[in-house]
Amino acid sequence: MTNDELLRQLYDLTLVGNGPAVLELTTTGLTAGLGPETLLYEALIPALEEVGARFERGDFFVPEMLIAGKAMAGALDVLRPLLAETGAESIGTVVMGTVKGDVHDIGKNLVNIMFEGAGFKVIDLGVQVPPERFVEAIVEHRPDIVGFSAFLTTTMPMFKANINALNKAGLRDQVAVMVGGAPVTQEYADVVGADGYASDASAAVVRAKELIAARRAAVSA
Ligand code: B12
Fold first, then answer.
1. How far apart are CA 217 and CA 134, in angstroms?
2. Is 187 buried (19+), middle (13-18) or exposed (0-12) by CB count in 10 A?
3. Burial class of 157 by CB neighbour count within 10 A (0 to 12, 13 to 18, 19+)
4. In this predicted structure, which of 8-12, 61-65, 131-135 has the lowest mean pLDDT?
5. Would 111 disulfide with which of 25, 130, 198, 201, CB 3.0-4.6 Å?
């Protein structure tokens, strides 16, 4: 099988949510010398995008989304140590969570993996995280960055609710707020008053480093 055929098969099998075959093919791909990023960005993520498109058209339903998501999550478990390979000292702390009312966690988990890979300490609060839980975690861990993930237009307003909770707790200027998730845009991030937005995990790392550098420069000025 050529690498292109392997990526095509991985895409097809993720699309239909064949977890065991996705796992096997991910391992085969790595053995054949394909990088973890190639497997992610050229097969796994495009497959989930197609799942979403089919769901929107009414060709797929929630069970299909669920098994495709599970297949992707299984592959991520294999890719995680390779994406997060680092011996570096921590360059900052990030508290991350999917907002209240939202159970999508694959995108958030991918961001966490890339953050860890870049040398951040990540505290993952999981999914359906209410504003008060973010506040507690910020008080406890004193992170440089708090990240809110949302995948539904109906849960995106929780960004604003979370920021209001930080303001109320007097924590807003102690932490940089980053937001993201499939329906989120830079414009929306600006409207809710977030400090940073990124459309994917690699961009999230770049933006997080910029935010930390800016905050440290402001403190020492
Ligand atoms: C898998 C999936 C599910 C699974 C989730 C499994 C899981 N454990 O996550 C299940 C089946 C549970 C599910 C449920 C539902 N889903 Co759903 N789901 C999806 C699907 C197909 C893939 C999402 C995904 O994981 N993508 C892969 C990752 C890697 O996505 P990504 O966006 O590239 O992630 C990057 C960025 O967003 C960014 N990022 C993410 N978070 C953050 C955070 C920060 C701080 C930063 C900086 C960056 C960042 O970095 C990530 C990594 O590169 C999407 C389709 C889509 N196109 O998104 C629909 C989709 C998100 N779901 C949708 C819907 C409607 C639902 C349901 C309401 C369906 C229903 N009727 O019940 C429920 C809601 C449940 C709930 N309360 O949350 C809609 C949302 C529409 C909308 N605009 O609101 C979508 C878009 C499908 C569609 N096209 O209609 N879903």
1. 26
2. exposed
3. middle
4. 61-65
5. 201
Q: For the residues of 4-32, what is the DSSP string, one character each?
A: HHHHHHHHHHHHTT-HHHHHHHHHHHHHT
Query: Which of ligand 1's atoms lies nearest the C-alpha of 51?
Result: 21
Ordered by where they begin, the domains of the chain are: 3-83 (1.10.1240.10), 92-220 (3.40.50.280)
Indicate if ligand 1 lies below 6 Å from the C-beta of 114: no
The pLDDT of residue 7 is above 70: yes
- For every residue of 97-147, DSSP letters joined together read EEBTT----HHHHHHHHHHHHTTEEEEE--SSB-HHHHHHHHHHH--SEEE
Q: With a 6 A CB cut-off, is 179 part of the ligand 1 pocket?
A: yes
Could you tell me whether strands 145-149 and 120-124 are parallel, antiparallel, or unpaired per DSSP bridges? Answer: unpaired
Q: Tell me: the pLDDT tens digits for 48-107?
A: 889 989 998 999 999 998 899 999 999 999 998 888 765 556 789 999 999 999 999 999
pTM over 0.85: yes
Q: What is the pLDDT of residues 166-185, one digit of tens each?
A: 999 999 999 999 999 999 99
- Ligand 1 site, residue 185, Cβ cutoff 6 A: no
